[in-house]
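Incident log, structure service

09:12 report received: a user says their structure output differs between two submissions of the same chain.
09:20 pulled the input from the user's history:
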Amino acid sequence: MTETLPTEANGNGVQSLVLIAEDEAEIAEILSAYLNRSGLRTAHAADGRQALELHRAVKPDLVLLDVQMPYVDGWQVLSQIRQRGDTPVIMLTALDQDIDKLMGLRIGADDYVVKPFNPAEVVARAQAVLRRSAMRPTTPVSRILRADVFEIDLDHHEATVRLGRKRHLLSLTLTEFKLLTHLAKAPRQVFTREELLVHCLPEGDTQERTVDSHISKLRKKLEILGVIGIPANVRGVGYRFGSSA
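09:34 re-ran on a clean worker, output below:
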């Protein structure tokens, strides 16, 4: 359900649209009422799958995203949204541990609200995030990622390796491409298996050892070309782009 009120607008002169991804109908209705009263349009998704579908279909200006949702949890939804673009996201959750807050912010959340919350505070935070979003530079960002011998085309999902004067197009699965891209974006950072699981693996994969399998297959494809040590294993922690990155 989407409602429209004739006040606060986004940069295109249209009332800003907030996607509420929340499986508790009562909470979603309260948030919607408060947001509408403040001049914002709303749409509601009752689970993670629907949230991703609506995000693609209605292109909201902001997402209020619950962590604990059916089918696809909030962490995975946030990761998918970040892979698609920079839609602002405020996490809504009953989890109040610092590690959970850091997890959300590290994946790319713009703000974090712990339940139970005051709906008026959520509206204020939503308006603040929307204002910050409107002030972001509009200059297009390059969609070509370069790291070491790699050139990764994010728009066309192609990765090439340059060795001397030759360029080799890599034949990667979608998961292998996501893993390589995610590691290459922060080549010095060590990512845990859990982080890579959330960011890069398909919905339904919940076993951390699955990450090891995909990394091993990616590494073998690179070794055939003579690229050794990428991705690198950091014993007891996880993986990073390369041992000398």
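09:41 both user submissions now match this output. Likely a transient worker issue. Closing.
09:42 reviewer note: Helices lie at 25-37, 48-58, 74-84, 98-107, 119-134, 174-185, 193-200, 208-224. Confidence is low (pLDDT under 50) at residues 1-7.
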